[in-house]
Write a structure and sequence with these properties.
The complex is a heterodimer of chains A (339) and B (134).
Chain A: H1 10-18, H2 22-34, H3 37-46, E1 54-59, H4 66-79, E2 84-90, E3 99-101, E4 116-122, H5 129-143, E5 148-152, H6 158-165, E6 169-174, H7 181-186, E7 195-198, H8 206-223, E8 249-252, H9 261-278, H10 282-305, H11 310-321, H12 327-338
Parallel strand pairs in A: 1-5, 1-6, 2-4, 2-5, 6-7, 7-8
Helix pairs in contact in A: 1-2, 1-3, 2-3, 2-5, 4-9, 5-6, 5-10, 11-12
Chain B: E1 7-11, H1 20-31, E2 35-38, H2 45-55, E3 59-64, H3 69-82, E4 89-94, H4 98-106, E5 111-113, H5 119-129
Parallel strand pairs in B: 1-2, 1-3, 3-4, 4-5
Helix pairs in contact in B: 2-3
The chains are: A alpha/beta (339), B alpha/beta (134).
C-alpha cells in the first residue's frame, strides 16, 4: 500500500509524478516522511533532476502571521505566472506523537490551481531528521517542476529554526511592538535571517519596530558580531571559517491586505540572484550534510539492529544502562563489531 | 519507522458556521497520536478533495451540522474516487438520521458519528479501519 493503489511500483509512481500527477507526488512525499524504501527509490531518480528551485524558509513566533503571509505571497507568485509549492511544518506532541496541522486554514484560495501545491508536515521530533526530511521533500517538489518552494516553520524550537536556516533564503517574521531593542539583540531567530519582515504593518508602531530592527541589525553587522545560525558542527578552526555576519534587509508587510508583499517577492528574487552569483552556497552544503548524515545514521542503526548484530547491540546497551560500560567504549565496541 | 501516525483530514464542508465540535475532535485526535490536518469552515467538496490529495491523508473526516450531508457527502466521495483516492477512509460526524446513515454507507462512508460519541471511540475506529502503510 506504500505506493498507493494506482501505482504498483516506485518507478510508476515517479513516472506519474514527473508527468504531473499530483496524487503520485503526494504519495512520494508521504514515503519521504516515513523514510520508506519507496522514498529511497524515488529520491535516487529525482535528486539529480532537482537543484534548480529557490528554497525559502519562513519562520517567526506563533501569531506573527506566517501562514497569512505565505498565502498572500502565493498570490503574488502566481500573478507572475510561476508555480509555487509550500511545505508547512507544525510541531508534534512529544507525548503522543500526534500533531495538529492548521496552516492550510489560511491558504484556501488556490484550490483549483494545479501550479500551487501545499503540504503540511509534522515535525515528528526525530533529532536532526526534520531538516533532512524537509530537504528531501523540497528536492521532490523541485524535481517535478516547482521553481519556488516556501518552507514555513514555527520559530519556537531549535530543529524548526534549523529547517528554515537550511533554505537558500531565510525570512524571519516579527510583529510590531513584540519587544524592545533588547529583545531584538537576544532573539536567536534574527541571527538566521536574510530578510526580516515586520508583518501587521497596519498596526501602530510597525514602522518604528522596523527602523529599530534596522538600526540594531546594521550596528551588529558592522561590529562583526557573529550572526549566523547555520546548523553545522563546530569545527576546531570554526573561528577561521566563521561566516560573515549578515546584514538582513528589513521590510514591512501587511499580509491581510497584501501591502509590501510584491516588495518581499522582489527582495526574495534579488537574494536568489545574489546567491547564484556568489556560487558556493553554505545553505546547499548544510542541506547535503543534513541528508547524508541522516541516511548514515539510519543505516548504522539498521545494521546494528539486524539479526547478526542485534544481540551484541542489546547487550552493550544494557551494560551502559548498568554503568558497567561507559557510552564511549560502547560506541567504539559497536563500530568495531560492524567492521 | 514503524508505528507512523495516521494522517486525518478534518473538514467542514458547506455553509454552517459552527466548528467547535470539529476543533475539539481535531485536538482530541492529536492527543490520541494522530496527525490531524484541519482546514476550517465553509469548504467546498473541491477544497476538501484537494486538501486530502495534497496531504495524502489516510482518513477524511467530514463534520456537517447543517443537514446538507446528502448533498455534500456524495460529491466528496465521488470526487475522491475520481482523484484515485478510493483507499482513503471517509467518516462523517454530525446529526445524521438513521435512513441517511444507510444511504451514506452505500456511498462509501465507513462510519457516521453522532452526538455523544467519544473521541476514544472515533480513534479506535480509525485505527482499526484506515489503510495500513507498509
Amino acid at each position: 500500500m506504500a505506493a498507493g493503489a494506482r501505482f504498483s511500483t516506485p518507478t510508476e509512481l515517479v513516472d506519474a509524478a514527473l508527468a504531473g500527477d499530483r496524487l503520485a507526488l503526494a504519495r512520494i512525499l508521504t514515503a519521504v516522511e516515513n523514510r520508506t524504501p519507496v522514498a529511497e527509490a524515488a529520491l535516487r531518480r529525482l535528486y539529480p533532476m532537482a537543484g534548480k528551485a529557490h528554497l525559502v524558509g519562513i519562520t517567526g513566533p506563533p501569531g506573527s502571521g506566517k501562514s497569512t503571509l505565505v498565502s498572500t505571497l502565493i498570490g503574488a507568485v502566481r500573478a507572475a505566472g510561476r508555480p509555487v509549492a509550500v511545505v508547512a511544518v507544525d510541531p508534534s506532541s512529544p507525548i503522543t506523537g500526534g500533531a495538529l496541522l492548521g496552516d492550510r486554514v489560511r491558504m484556501q484560495a488556490y484550490t483549483s490551481d494545479r501550479d500551487v501545491f501545499i503540504r503540511s508536515m509534522a515535525a515528528r521530533g526525530h533529532a536532526g531528521g526534520l531538516a533532512s526530511t524537509s530537504t528531501a521533500a523540497a528536492a521532490v517538489l523541485d524535481a517535478v517542476g516547482f521553481d519556488l518552494i516556501l518552507i514555513e516553520t514555527v520559530g519556537t524550537g531549535q530543529s524548526e529554526v534549523e529547517v528554515a536556516a537550511a533554505a537558500d533564503t531565510t525570512v524571519v517574521l516579527e510583529a510590531p511592538e513584540m519587544g524592545d531593542e533588547v529583545q531584538a539583540i537576544k532573539a536567536g531567530l534574527l541571527e538566521v535571517a536574510d530578510i526580516v519582515v515586520v508583518n501587521k504593518g497596519d498596526r501602530p508602531g510597525a514602522q518604528r519596530t522596523a527602523s529599530q530592527l534596522r538600526a540594531m541589525l546594521v550596528a551588529v553587522g558592522r561590529a562583526g558580531v557573529r550572526s549566523t545560525g547555520r546548523a553545522r558542527p563546530a569545527a576546531p578552526d570554526a573561528a577561521a571559517e566563521r561566516p560573515k555576519p549578515k546584514e538582513p534587509e528589513v521590510l514591512v508587510t501587511t499580509a491581510t491586505t497584501g501591502a509590501g508583499v510584491p516588495e518581499l517577492l522582489a527582495s526574495l528574487d534579488r537574494h536568489r540572484a545574489r546567491g547564484r552569483e556568489a556560487g558556493d552556497s553554505p545553505a546547499r552544503l548544510a542541506r547535503a550534510e543534513a541528508q547524508v548524515w541522516a541516511i548514515l545514521s539510519d543505516r548504522l542503526r539498521a545494521d546494528l539492529h539486524d539479526p547478526k548484530h542485534r544481540d551484541a547491540t542489546d547487550a552493550t546497551m544494557r551494560e551502559v544502562a548498568d554503568h558497567r560500560l561507559d557510552p564511549f567504549a560502547a560506541a567504539d565496541r559497536l563500530l568495531a563489531e560492524l567492521r | 519507522m514503524p508505528d507512523r501516525p495516521l494522517k486525518v483530514l478534518i473538514a467542514k464542508p458547506g455553509l454552517d458556521g459552527h466548528d467547535r465540535g470539529a476543533k475539539v475532535l481535531a485536538r482530541g485526535l492529536r492527543d490520541e497520536g494522530f496527525e490531524v490536518v484541519y482546514t476550517g469552515l465553509r469548504q467546498t467538496p473541491d477544497m476538501v478533495v484537494t486538501a486530502a490529495l495534497q496531504e495524502d491523508v489516510d482518513v477524511v473526516g467530514l463534520s456537517i451540522l447543517s443537514g446538507a450531508h446528502m448533498t455534500l457527502v456524495p460529491k466528496v466521495t465521488a470526487k475522491l474516487r475520481e482523484a484515485g483516492m478510493d483507499d482513503v477512509l471517509v467518516v462523517v460526524g454530525g446529526i445524521i438520521p438513521d435512513d441517511d446513515v444507510v444511504a451514506l454507507k452505500e456511498l462509501g462512508v465507513a462510519a457516521t458519528f453522532g452526538p455523544g460519541t467519544t473521541i476514544a471511540e472515533v480513534a479506535e475506529f480509525l485505527r482499526a479501519n484506515a489503510r495500513q502503510h507498509a
